[in-house]
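QA checklist item 7 of 12: single-chain prediction sanity check.
[x] sequence parsed
[x] length recorded as 131
[x] structure emitted
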Amino acid sequence: QVQLVESGGGSVQAGGSLRVSCTASGLRFDDYTWGWFRQAPGNEREQISCISWNRVTTYYADSVVGRFTISRDNAKNTLYLQMNDLKPEDTAQYYCAATQREGSWSSSGWRCPEGSKFTDWGQGTQVTVSS
């Protein structure tokens, strides 16, 4: 049984930092592309970052580039998202997700698989940023 468990969310003031983690079990962590998504009330789910199976390539949405860093520790079956310089608009429920699909290359660089291609999801962790 696949299980993804996020942790590390919380409340922080604008400009602060948080690191959220996602620990996986029940699957071969190394075989998957991993991603972070978020959803705020009333908003659509947003794909904010993902990382290839071999950790070589990463993708960031424009809304988080330069502030967030995705990483993975295959030995620990854990995915991380380091979030710096947090803003109130970063307030959302954050989800990790996995897919066996690989990303794709375009003229603008490497892109994650579409959100619909992610097959396994965590339960989410709340991040709240106050101004």
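[x] summary fact logged: The radius of gyration is 14 Å.
[ ] second reviewer sign-off
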